[in-house]
Amino acid sequence: MQCPRDQAVLLEERVHGIEVDHCPQCNGRWLDHHQLDELEATRTKDEDHRSGMIEYAQRDSELACPVCTEPMVAFNYRAYDLELDTCRDEHGFWLDAGEEGRVRDIIDERVRGRNRAVKAEQAWDNFLDGVGGGGMWDSVRGFFSGRGR
């Protein structure tokens, strides 16, 4: 296969335990369609953290797929400011130099965000348990009815 950026011959290499095709000139990488999910899984095995739409704001790409040579589609990865390219026929994804690290950083950020949401939900549930169990609201009612004095 040839690099869609500079037509150099792509070489196989292992990145984060995944065998990908690498361009020795521009340092870009071709990931087969399932390998983007594998790259995300290097940050978390929890599929809930990796679920959701990946391709936002699709537009025509200037690159051709190294497998079928058809024009690819550029998109914002997970609605972040990271443009990746993908084959319309799902042959794979092109990541320019350093973008595999940004994919991993985005997954880390999603994990942190979901963990914060879970903690906030647990705190809210604890608050509601206190409200429903008499606790705070009984104290407030008692205060205003004169029993809390």
Describe, in plain words, how this protein is organized in 3D.
The protein has 149 residues and is an alpha+beta fold. The protein is 38% helix and 27% strand. The relative contact order is 0.13. The mean pLDDT is 83.
Jot down its keywords.
4 helices; elongated; 38% helix; alpha+beta
Unreliable residue stretches = none
Query: What is the count of structural domains?
Result: 1
Q: What is the general shape?
A: elongated
Helix content: 25-40%
Question: N-to-C SSE series?
Answer: EEEHHEEEEHH
- Name the assembly state: single chain
Decide which structural class fits the backbone.
alpha+beta
Q: How many extended strands?
A: 7
The N- and C-terminal alpha carbons lie at a distance of 82 Å
What proportion strand? 25-35%
User: Mind describing the biggest β-sheet?
Assistant: 7 strands, antiparallel
Radius of gyration: 24 Å
Report the average pLDDT across residues. Answer: 83
Count of helical segments?
4
Query: Strands of the biggest beta sheet: in what spatial order?
Result: 1-2-3-7-6-5-4
Secondary-structure topology with pairs:
Elements: E1 11-15, E2 18-22, E3 29-32, H1 35-41, H2 47-50, E4 55-64, E5 71-77, E6 83-87, E7 92-95, H3 99-132, H4 135-145
